Please model this.
Amino acid sequence: MGKLSDIIEIKHGDAFKGEFVSDFEEKDVLITPGNFKIGGGFNSQKFKYYKGEIPHDYILKRNDLLVTMTDLSKGGDTLGYSALVPTIEGKRLLHNQRIGKVMFRSDLPVKHFLYWLMRQDDYRHFVLGGATGSTVKHTSPTRICEFEFPLPSKELLLKFETKKKV
Model:
């Protein structure tokens, strides 16, 4: 058994200034917990836009692995779920607060394996079991990284990565 902390760390997003957040379409899109589907994956149905200055370190790239650390539903419907950043023509996607960006500690090919692992019931029970808040559920990078799981061999991970592209 290993812990997620053995192979990843999770970076918090930026606290973009509220005065520059808009519902009117702009080039820059803030990724929020609302951009995660129940069950995992990316939801591009509802965007918040940003028209202020953007720190370069918080511009997301295609296929960055994200995890939501806040959920507004009573049941924590999307808390802890993963999503891969899509390409949306003409838009820059921004790494907003309460969204974690998965940073890899090694060269093990684990991105797609983790994308699916972070959608499994045992992982979700672990995250929800340690969530704080009654109305708004929260988790932390530390809590997520404490999750233990059997890490497949590098050979199996390579096979998984080549067959499970999302």
In short: The mean pLDDT is 92. The domain at 2-163 is CATH 3.90.220.20 (Adenine-n6-DNA-methyltransferase TaqI; Chain A, domain 2). The first strand starts at residue 2 and ends at 3. Residues 154-163 form the longest helix (10 residues).
